[in-house]
Amino acid sequence: MQLYTKVGDKGTTKLVGGGTVSKDSDRVWAYGTIDELNTFIGLAATKLDSKEQDIQAELLQLQHCLFDFGSDLANPNLNDDTMRFNPKYVGWLESKIDQYQDEPPAIQRFILPGGSEQSALFQVCRTITRRAERQIVSLNWSVTLPSEMLKFINRLSDYFYALARVVNYRQGTPEVFYEHGNQVFH
Length: 186
Fold this sequence. Notes:
The chain has 186 residues and is mostly helical. Helices cover 58% and strands 3% of the residues. It has a two-stranded antiparallel ribbon with strand order 1-2.
């Protein structure tokens, strides 16, 4: 397979099904951000140690799911028959969020992203997911996407937040709580 096609030389790209669209279209922004997210998930998975094999396996499964999700975003003729994304992933994410949010102690305050390197990477994944969600919502104004896709992307950022907290907890890394107005620069 040729790595370069020269199709993009004029600022356009091909979609699933063969149509062509500008590289700055809402659709390309949306699936491009999903691709970026998938790359950061891969990086985050490499930073987990052997005690986190359960999370590594989940992340690998999630990466496959996101390939399907991105393919669907790139398909202007998306319908129930052509959709690759499995809507059951919404329930899967909800069960994982429930599992992970019950592991560390409950908090009633905002935390600063960080702690361990792994937690910080999951916070990066969370914010990329939020950006992808905004772009998918924008795309949904001009095309109708399946509601399960919108639910999934909304839950996905919560999943990464839960993962960020749980890896800090498992590693014994304290979370830093946000303190409004109490920080003085020296």
